[in-house]
Structure prediction request, 93 residues.
Amino acid sequence: MEKLIMEEVAFKVLSETQDVIKVDNFVRQVIDFTNNSEITYEDVRESIFKFMFYRFIKVENTSAEENYICKEQNFYQAKKLGSVGSWLKEKQV
Prediction:
């Protein structure tokens, strides 16, 4: 799946989740949302890394085995604009 499209799909799923979600649950939700068996854990993981770079999320480790995604302010700005692409365009200006 094209990278920006994958980011938008992951963003849409993240938009519909709680403010805090387990990383593994999020990955499963993205894969289930797309109904696409070609999407891998690595594809979603790459989007998670990009979201961390954009400061949409931070990943917190609350125990040895569980990591949680926590939404940050940039995520809410992008959600208000409607997409990752819109947020990136605004930041370039």
Notes: The two ends are 28 Å apart (CA to CA). Residues 7 and 46 are 9 Å apart (CA to CA).
